[in-house]
Amino acid sequence: SKLQLPYRRFREYNVQLNEEEPEEHRIWILKPQGGFNQVGIHMYSLATADIASDSATAAWLMQRVPEGTWVLQEYLMNPMTYQGHKFDLRVWALVTSLDPLRVYLLGTGIPKVSQWNYSKAVEDVKEPCIHVLMPGTNECFQNKRANVLTPYPTRTNTQEWFDKVIPSGRDFWTQRAWPSVEWRVVELLVLARDAILHVDHQLKRNGLRYKRVFFLSPDILIDQHGQATMVEVNVNGYMIGNLHKSFFPLHEEQRAVFRLMGGNGFPKQHKYAAALEQ
């Protein structure tokens, strides 16, 4: 039977990808809409035979996409790596004004790096320690395939980072990769703000002046050419401070965010200081 239009476009898109950048197979990620912390994520291999006809693509989709509301997301097959390990970046952005648009971006990405060497092979599609668990669970660190990074990289603006990413070099990172990350954040805000800009204008017309900020922490992947892709946007204010400081020492950066927000110290510290000391 003929595929419905969205599914036909899915097949046509993959056919076009294969023509431009041939691969033995392609990986697609299925995740529940509104999911968090890698819960419910499935990785699937899409072979060339699966897009050979409408019926083949329909069978592939019917077998893998259940009832409900899901996101089927293209997987970046050839990512930039750190010493051969896949990574993505948590990026912090603080929006303090919509009109004019004013956004502050942390000057370093927050690396989340796999402890296994990267592989896009068909037999490794279901290995979450390669693809989605970064830095990973205890199993990822203890498995015989683990190639634990010591020391773990915590910043992307150091010479060690420039030397160990592939492709390597300060110029590649500072002139191509990182500017692409910055552009993806700005692009997101420019596209999204139109939907709420009228609210901002209405508040100003009514003379309502109060501090409004928006904290974003998107996850971004970078491909082998230095082009950034936004994986998802976290908007729940997930700020971990030094909770996992061996991997993410962010206490001072978190304090800086609050200062930019206009925080004036900790006026109610006396109410919770004893609990913090326990």
Task: Report what the structure shows.
The protein has 278 residues and is α+β, with helices and mostly antiparallel strands. It has nine helices and eleven strands. The strands form two sheets. Strands 4, 5, 6, 7, 8, 9, 10 and 11 form an eight-stranded antiparallel β-sheet that branches. Strands 2-1-3 form a three-stranded antiparallel β-sheet, with no helix packed on it. Strand 6 and strand 7 form a beta hairpin. The termini are far apart. The model has no long low-confidence stretch (mean pLDDT 90).
What's the main sheet like?
Answer: 8 strands, antiparallel
Range of helix content:
25-40%
The average pLDDT value, as a whole number, equals 90
- Helix segment tally: 9
Please give the radius of gyration in angstroms.
Answer: 21 Å
Report the span from N to C terminus.
65 Å
Order of helices and strands: HEEHEEEEEEHHHEHHEEHH
User: Given the helix and strand composition, which structural class is it?
Assistant: alpha+beta
State the shape: globular
Oligomer: single chain
- Give the percentage of residues in beta strands: 15-25%
Residue windows where pLDDT falls under 50 for at least 5 positions? none
